[in-house]
Amino acid sequence: MIRFRWPRLKELKILCAGVIVLFGAAIYFISDDSRIRSLSVNGNYYYTAQQVYKIADLSTSSRFLLNPSFLIESRLEEDPMIEDASVHIHGQSVSIDIKEKLIVGYYLKDGQNYVLFADGQSLPIEDPTLMKNLIHVPLLADLSEETMQKICKQFQDYPEYLNRESLEKVAEILPWSESYDENMLKMIMQDGNVVFTSISSLQMISNYQLVLTELVGEDVCLVLDSENGAIDKIACDYFNMSAEERDAYRQAIRLEAEAALREAQKAQEQDDQNQDNQESANLQEDAENENDEQSPEANENQDPDQNSEQNAQEAPEPGSDADLIERSKQAADWQPSESWNWLVYSPSVNTFKSVNDDIYYVYDESTASFRQLQ
Does residue 100 have a pLDDT over 70? Predict the structure, then answer.
């Protein structure tokens, strides 16, 4: 015969406690206190906040018990455009911090749009709304895979210069070829200006904003030259000329520079002659009045060799940039340049000056470009 055994008191207490916990959890789960009340996101540039929430699978109706922070971070970092994510929960608020991968540009291949990341990887754009968000990303038109990888290498080597801020200024990047470099780039800027550069000089685009004040007129193009640390301004028509037209253009510039040099030499000879005449007159006057205004004691205390050495140390070296700048500041024969409307020319010093400010240049015939005096 089987006897019925009543549960022990201890077992009843454990059973009751378990029922109470389950009941409390059920009450909490269905209450508003278990819901996320506010969401925020920081660090998003390409994605909108709503797109980030969708990737994280979160909304104000989501419940905390089903969305721990580590799970939200995992969902975000699975997205190929998000490099890193961290989630912070404060009360009923969730704050999301993300770091998106840097996008160099987007391109079209076989009817499909792709984005190119700075690490060299490409990703097809499946979401049409994402395409609308890439308004500050340049179009990579007709660039080969090898060229795009070389561009990405520059972004990896110079992250302090090549970043989102510099890319925002560029609307389109195209291939360009010159006789001295067949693998150049032509960049059409958001403001309509055009920049030509070799791939190795691409990092100098970070200086683009600094030279905008020097641009005069609408037909001006820039050439980035990292080897000489210069940004040259050249008429845009030059890049549309044939080889024969370019030779004629350079010849015209050379003739103008030679004529200017002859005028400068002639003016310098005249200045030297006038200076010699003035020095002769001063010496003669000093000889006549040497006993009238200077005492013997003053002559004994004066050290001509020391004064000459001091003056030689203070005076800039003839022909140096400092000497040319000083002479240019004193020049009074500035006249408009026939070939460059953004410059004026001084025949006496053979230098050019920007019409906007006191920045001086000399023309280098060997490279057919200007060098700024430092």
Answer: yes
Phi/psi at 165 (nearest 5 deg)? -65, -40
Q: Summarize the confidence of residues 279-302 as an average pLDDT.
A: 64
Are 153 and 178 found together in one domain?
A: yes
pLDDT (tens digit per residue) in 120-170: 999 999 888 888 888 889 999 999 999 999 999 999 999 999 999 889 989
| Confidence at residue 301, expressed as pLDDT on a 0 to 100 scale | 53
Q: Which residues neighbour 202 within 8 Å (Cβ) at sequence distance 6 or greater?
A: 151, 154, 158, 162, 185, 224
Q: Is the pLDDT of residue 171 over 90?
A: yes
pLDDT at 80: 94
What contacts 36, CB < 8 A, 6 or more positions away?
58, 59, 60, 61, 62, 63, 64, 67, 92, 93, 94
Return d(Cα 346, Cα 334) in angstroms, integer.
5
Residues 257 and 371 grouped into a single domain: yes
Beta strand 220-225 pairing with 230-235: antiparallel
Kindly state whether residue 331 falls inside one of the protein's structural domains: yes
Based on the domain organization, do 132 and 90 belong to the same domain? Answer: no
Give the span between the Cα atoms of 357 and 349, in whole angstroms.
Answer: 18
- Per-chain mean pLDDT for the chain: 79
Range of the domain at 211: 103-231
Give the tokens for residue 260.
């200017």
Considering only residues 343 and 140, tell me which one the structure prediction assigns the higher pLDDT: 140
Indicate the number of domains in the chain.
3
Question: Phi-psi category of 318—alpha, beta or left, where left has phi over 0 and alpha has psi -120 to 50?
Answer: beta
Both tokens of 40, joined, read 């925020």
Same domain, yes or no: 137 and 88: no
Contact 81, 123 (CB under 8 A): yes
Beta strands at 38-42 and 93-100: parallel, antiparallel or unpaired: parallel
Residue 217 confidence (pLDDT) above 50: no
Domain assignment present for 280: no
Q: Compute the distance between CA of residue 184 and CA of residue 200 in angstroms, rounded to an integer.
A: 9
- Residue 19's pLDDT band (boundaries 50, 70, 90)? low
Task: Let me know if residue 304 belongs to a domain.
Answer: no
Alpha helices for the chain (secondary structure H) = 9-30, 49-56, 69-77, 128-133, 145-157, 164-167, 208-211, 243-289, 296-301, 304-314, 321-330
